[in-house]
Design brief:
about 650 residues; alpha/beta; Rossmann fold; Elongation Factor Tu (Ef-tu), domain 3; six-stranded mixed β-sheet; globular
Length: about 650
């Protein structure tokens, strides 16, 4: 998502500009045939291609040339006569150049439309004149609106199969207008066509004299397209820092929105340091200005620490940081999106861990009404709330699509599973325009992010070690708390700033209001994760000893921290040995039925799939296991090397 749209083109008479548009609709509505017709009529097809298509049409027994074969390039598509991927096509007329994204119609491929529509200026929704407006038609129109496509053309296709009747066309127009009243569109245009026979595709048709508003191509050639990008607010997500010599420091990236000029006041985020632009350079050399879509190298007047994934923005109205925000999410994953699941979130050049906190609702594709939902399944569109491990510097999608979109990636499969549009920060609902260095409260007393006065790096340098969260998980009685205490003492004696959190500590205060249901356990761990995150930010090595039986709860905590700072230790001990130890007598009560839902007896425990360390406490002493954990922490660079190894070659 979120490709950059070029600046406005010259619209003087005779000027040629570019229109990106996408086609969508239900399966078999004729999208590929329509595109094939456009390519054929505008003479964009090579003769040998046309000969191949004519031959294939004859062999399949079709009476007319199947122009859809001009676009269906995959064998699976040709055999099934469907489109299963996004295909980009190009053609031109004397008035305009065009890029088409041909997207699938099958419901299982709705996710592909998000790809095709993400950079489109206009969307064509095809409707079969025989079937009328169906669920896929509404879903695609809803997606187009959510993605910010303001120009929608509804092409009522296959008019030849309904005898070119005006009443059939008018009924579909009325039905679609009623639905589209709920969408955010600049304009909505209807055109009756027959892609197979060419009626009203490129030129008017005598078979429908009751329609006099121009052909589809004429609409495409004359529609006035907004630039589609925020031209006011300068945003430069930093892709790379160039240091060819100690005297030069340049920040490279593609301008996401706005314009940058030498002398502009800008702020480096997240540091919040204000400075001015010294130079702006492109591949052509120094320039006086650069707008959205331009790859640039920017130098600053002052020495500022900015790295990849951070941002340079105009000082006035810079984006506020957000770690908790609401978004509209188009779900593309085979597995449902459920609260507690963690993902990699990609936003501009920044990648952070994120947790899906909750699903607020799902949109009904037929009515656009919000429906209560606990999760999103494949092709669902819904409003969700997320928390990220590090702040994003974003704008609401409606005001700046370039910095208001993101994608979610499943960390286990590395597949993109969600495309999102940020609607607002949950932390700063009423202070969205405040810059990062603004006061910590607005006039109504709502909290706003004020950054950290002392950075994590400074604390780590003073402490002499790196911060991390050491998460000990295992069955009740496996030795997590005992091991955690031994580790805390061992680290304390080495001068390491460490702190242990365990179930007994938390449930006496922080989790005192919670029971032991699955929901309460999850909430307990959510609170623990937030506390551990705050302690981590203070440069502490935090030791957490919790049963935490479900992988997704542990992964949710992992997602709150930077990569490599969550160290999961599976305290391995068989249930028989845990029952034999039974330090609190809990197993006996659970076996007697006095404690329902007890992990290891009547409730499951999901072992870590890839823990950083497996600690066998059944066969080894606490001191031996603690020694191994400390050694691994040194190997990972979290603790300094001690003794003769330090400085050795």
């Amino acid at each position: 998502m979120g490709g950059t749209v070029a600046p406005p083109k010259d619209r003087r008479a005779g000027a040629t500009d570019l229109l990106r548009f996408t086609t969508a609709g239900s399966v078999d509505d004729g999208k590929s045939t329509l595109i094939g017709r456009l390519l054929y009529e505008t003479k964009t097809v090579f003769e040998d291609q046309l000969e191949q298509v004519e031959g294939a049409s004859r062999r399949s027994g079709e009476k007319e040339v199947n122009l859809a074969l001009l676009t269906d390039g995959l064998r699976a598509e040709r055999e099934q006569k469907i489109t299963i991927d996004v295909a980009y096509r190009y053609f031109a007329t004397p008035r305009r150049k065009f890029i088409i994204a041909d997207t699938p119609g099958h419901v299982q491929y709705t996710r592909n439309m998000v790809t095709g529509a993400s950079t489109a200026d206009l969307a064509i929704i095809l409707v079969d004149a025989r079937k009328g407006v169906v669920t896929q038609s509404r879903r695609h129109a809803s997606l187009a609106s959510l993605l910010g496509i303001r120009h929608l053309v509804v092409a009522v296709n296959k008019m030849d199969l309904v005898g070119y009747r005006e009443d059939a066309y008018r009924e579909i127009v009325e039905d679609f207008r009623t639905f589209a009243g709920k969408l955010d569109l600049n304009d909505l245009t209807f055109v009756p066509i027959s892609a197979l026979r060419g009626d009203h595709v490129v030129r008017p048709s005598e078979r429908m004299p009751w329609y006099q508003d121009g052909s589809l191509l004429e609409i495409l050639e004359t529609v006035e397209v907004d630039p589609g990008t925020n031209e006011t607010d300068f945003r430069l997500p930093v892709q790379y820092v160039i240091r060819p010599n100690p005297e030069f420091r340049g920040y490279t990236g593609t301008v996401a929105s706005g314009t940058v000029r030498p002398g502009d006041r800008v702020v480096a985020l997240p540091a919040g340091v204000e400075t001015r632009v010294r130079t702006v350079e492109t591949t052509a050399g120094p320039v006086e200005s650069a707008g959205a879509g331009k790859a640039v190298v920017v130098t600053l007047e002052d020495e500022v620490d900015v790295s990849r994934g951070e941002m340079i923005a105009q000082a006035e109205g810079a984006p506020s940081p957000a770690t908790r925000f609401r978004a509209d999410l188009c779900w593309m994953g085979e597995e449902p999106a459920a609260p507690g699941e963690s993902y990699r979130l990609l936003h501009t050049t920044r990648e952070v861990q994120a947790v899906l906190d909750q699903v607020d609702h799902r949109l009904d594709p037929d009515t656009l009404e919000p429906k209560a939902a606990e999760r999103l399944t494949l092709n669902d569109i819904g409003r969700v709330e997320l928390t990220t491990a590090a702040p994003l510097f974003c704008d609401p999608y409606g005001s700046n699509p370039a910095t208001g979109n993101f994608v979610l990636v499943d960390p286990r499969t590395n597949r993109t599973v969600g495309a999102g549009m940020i609607r607002g920060s949950r932390e700063e609902e009423d202070v969205a325009t405040l810059p990062v260095w603004a006061a910590s409260e607005d006039e109504e007393g709502h909290l706003a992010w004020d950054g950290w006065s002392v950075s994590l790096e400074e604390r780590e340098e003073r402490n002499g070690h790196r911060a991390a969260v050491l998460w000990l998980t295992g069955l009740p009685g496996s030795g997590k708390t005992t091991l955690g205490r031994a580790l805390e003492r061992r680290l304390f004696e080495e001068g390491v700033q460490s702190f242990q959190l365990d179930g007994d500590h938390v449930r006496q205060g922080l989790g005192r209001d919670l029971g032991f249901s699955e929901q309460d356990r999850r909430e307990n761990l959510r609170r623990v994760g937030q506390v551990a995150r705050l302690l981590f930010q203070q440069g502490t090595l935090v030791i957490c000893s919790f049963v935490s039986p479900f992988r997704k709860d542990r992964e949710a905590v992992r997602s709150l921290l930077p990569e490599g700072r969550f160290f999961e230790v599976f305290v391995s001990c068989g249930v028989e040995e845990c029952i034999r130890r039974d330090p609190k007598g809990l197993y006996r009560k659970a076996l007697d039925g006095e404690i329902p839902g007890f992990t290891g007896v009547s409730a499951p425990y999901e072992e870590p799939e890839e823990p950083e360390l497996v600690a066998d406490t059944a066969e080894r002493t606490v001191d031996e296991v603690a020694e191994e954990i400390v050694r691994r922490l040194r190997e990972e660079g979290l603790l300094p090397v001690r003794g003769p190894a330090a400085g050795s070659c």
